[in-house]
């Protein structure tokens, strides 16, 4: 093309008047008091970040804007930032925001009838759900405008951002004047995971983690954030050695427990939140710390190696009172970073796969859902009132119900809160907002207090939508979502109970030769375990978890101790095995035979017999992670049942098993006092104290026997009252009842004794039979009582697995052996003395001459002449003291 032609075309294009795209070109720029006002958005939901700048009376500019998409999102104006003002707000622009934004910049025109003085709060608002994604307060700023960022800096805003992995970022701002760096860690991870970031030891090249100075951040069980200073000495969990030293990934405070925490833990938490499945923690640390041993100096101008990791974390326990980062499982790395260089390669918001952090409550047909109110701490759909609805002590949880299954509500939220289930996500009676709604359950009558709750039942049917909302009839946005699903566990199983502390639901169906069992946790965990037994020791455990490949697993174990080495895998015959995790809620199912097919004692699991006619003792535990290979302390539970539940399989009910060890201890002491001391002492008095002057032996005998019998009856009544009944299903009870019957027979026998023969006369046959009966019955009672004491200790050990029972049993045996030695000595002494008296034909008895010490049961007693030796017959009898 000729040059003259190009010049002509250029002039032609220059002279053509093209339309101007600036939407605010005709708008005045000086009338607004907010001219040049600039501020960051406050993030509320959907990972919203950005900067707003007021251009003129008619428009504003949004830059560096990030946001996850919503359903019907608009620019919104309101008179205040509380729930009432925001829900009563208005559209300020016809521009909508219905897609995901990634570091975008654009200009937003106001509606023609909207002016800046009408807007006190400018928000990004999702209209159908009345959700505030983010906002800026305009009411607190002066006429001068142009406020500095530092005056209103948001905790989520930093000068720099670096991508560490697809789901992990670090943001930071350097304050060289104060020699401090502010760091923000942001990751799309679960609430049970930690985020770690720090500096590697510059003197180490082959093992970057060892010697590293890192911050471990995360969220506690109640949702509060934490950030702690850690030092790495070994690739392992923090372990406390026998000498008190520690090694592994340990807090700085554990290395120097005597130092002030401020000098050792120099990681200072600033802010933290969980939003949309993304964890965000902001903390600050000095560039140079006073702790030169466990903190590394950060050179702001040098390229230094930083290390990072994310993974599961175990909460503190009584043995190790600090957070324990678990194996990061491949989510770790390192890079070279100069914190003085400006970096921002974070394009767009993090988008987590699982955005639902709220607790999940699954309703079943037997356990009522307790509806109450409490403070709004982590309400999932802001803005919200200060008081919201709680279900089973969980704040605004996601409620899941099943079609065809009745849901029981125990409403005790107060007379000013009426529960109802509606199609409106806001609640508070939609007709007052000129909106329509469908009410599926509840109304003005669904109110009550704790002292007088209202019990109501709702049965979702096939016409109930998949998603509805439980709300208050009078105040909007107090409740949350109700997921309506097709029938599940309560429909599949005939019986269900809530185990200890209402943290695990147990379902079962009995068949002729098998039982089908399901268990579901009521809180998020990495694994769920149920066990058959009164405690962890000597229990049969079933552990359900989802492995790294996403496959649900159920494994069986025999546990005979408290260490990981005491958890032994077994090979139980389980069928129809299933395990799944939904929002961190573990559900496991399996079917097993009532009686294993193997012979008893062949393997530990062969003794795991389920008898439907007897209560089944069930315990549970939850933990962060499980492994089918090598178990260690990282597989320990973080929540467990406080006591076993006695599940009545045939009746479909359960009751908490009380710890009766104090009761049984009192019962055992009373029985030992009677059968181990008083009653044997009474027998010894009758046998070896007849040489005592007057009737003293008889009084001692009677007093000891009646005292022992009284204590026996008190111990018996105490045990029966505390155990709420008496059953003869144990060896101990059978021995005890037989011993009591024999003991009771003695005073009755004494009352019916025949009259003693006069001096010089031969005892009647009835008298001799009575004496034999009285002596044999008493001695048999002592033997059976001793057997009852031994079997009682064994019963206590079998019931509770107490480690002290074995020692107490041996102590009791030693006690009775000592008693037997004393009897042998007294018997020998008595025999020697009797022979001496016979040889000398002397009567040395110091009594009244009517009571001799010759044993009726001794067949070798001398009796050659009735007249001469009639006075040497022994009298063994019980007579009243007034004789």
UniProtKB/TrEMBL annotation:
<keyword id="KW-0813">Transport</keyword>
<feature type="signal peptide">
    <location>
        <begin position="1"/>
        <end position="21"/>
    </location>
</feature>
<protein>
    <recommendedName>
        <fullName>Cytochrome b561 domain-containing protein</fullName>
    </recommendedName>
</protein>
<keyword id="KW-0812">Transmembrane</keyword>
<dbReference type="GO" id="GO:0017004">
    <property type="term" value="P:cytochrome complex assembly"/>
</dbReference>
<keyword id="KW-1133">Transmembrane helix</keyword>
<dbReference type="GO" id="GO:0020037">
    <property type="term" value="F:heme binding"/>
</dbReference>
<feature type="region of interest" description="Disordered">
    <location>
        <begin position="857"/>
        <end position="883"/>
    </location>
</feature>
<keyword id="KW-0732">Signal</keyword>
<feature type="transmembrane region" description="Helical">
    <location>
        <begin position="805"/>
        <end position="826"/>
    </location>
</feature>
<feature type="transmembrane region" description="Helical">
    <location>
        <begin position="701"/>
        <end position="721"/>
    </location>
</feature>
<feature type="domain" description="DOMON">
    <location>
        <begin position="166"/>
        <end position="311"/>
    </location>
</feature>
<dbReference type="Pfam" id="PF10517">
    <property type="entry name" value="DM13"/>
</dbReference>
<dbReference type="Pfam" id="PF01578">
    <property type="entry name" value="Cytochrom_C_asm"/>
</dbReference>
<feature type="transmembrane region" description="Helical">
    <location>
        <begin position="772"/>
        <end position="793"/>
    </location>
</feature>
<feature type="domain" description="DOMON">
    <location>
        <begin position="502"/>
        <end position="623"/>
    </location>
</feature>
<feature type="transmembrane region" description="Helical">
    <location>
        <begin position="733"/>
        <end position="752"/>
    </location>
</feature>
<dbReference type="InterPro" id="IPR045879">
    <property type="entry name" value="B561A"/>
</dbReference>
<dbReference type="InterPro" id="IPR057443">
    <property type="entry name" value="At5g54830-like"/>
</dbReference>
<dbReference type="InterPro" id="IPR019545">
    <property type="entry name" value="DM13_domain"/>
</dbReference>
<dbReference type="Pfam" id="PF03351">
    <property type="entry name" value="DOMON"/>
</dbReference>
<dbReference type="InterPro" id="IPR002541">
    <property type="entry name" value="Cyt_c_assembly"/>
</dbReference>
<feature type="transmembrane region" description="Helical">
    <location>
        <begin position="669"/>
        <end position="689"/>
    </location>
</feature>
<keyword id="KW-0472">Membrane</keyword>
<dbReference type="InterPro" id="IPR005018">
    <property type="entry name" value="DOMON_domain"/>
</dbReference>
<dbReference type="InterPro" id="IPR006593">
    <property type="entry name" value="Cyt_b561/ferric_Rdtase_TM"/>
</dbReference>
<feature type="domain" description="DM13">
    <location>
        <begin position="35"/>
        <end position="139"/>
    </location>
</feature>
<feature type="domain" description="Cytochrome b561">
    <location>
        <begin position="631"/>
        <end position="834"/>
    </location>
</feature>
<dbReference type="InterPro" id="IPR045266">
    <property type="entry name" value="DOH_DOMON"/>
</dbReference>
<keyword id="KW-0249">Electron transport</keyword>
<dbReference type="Pfam" id="PF25489">
    <property type="entry name" value="At5g54830"/>
</dbReference>
<dbReference type="GO" id="GO:0016020">
    <property type="term" value="C:membrane"/>
</dbReference>
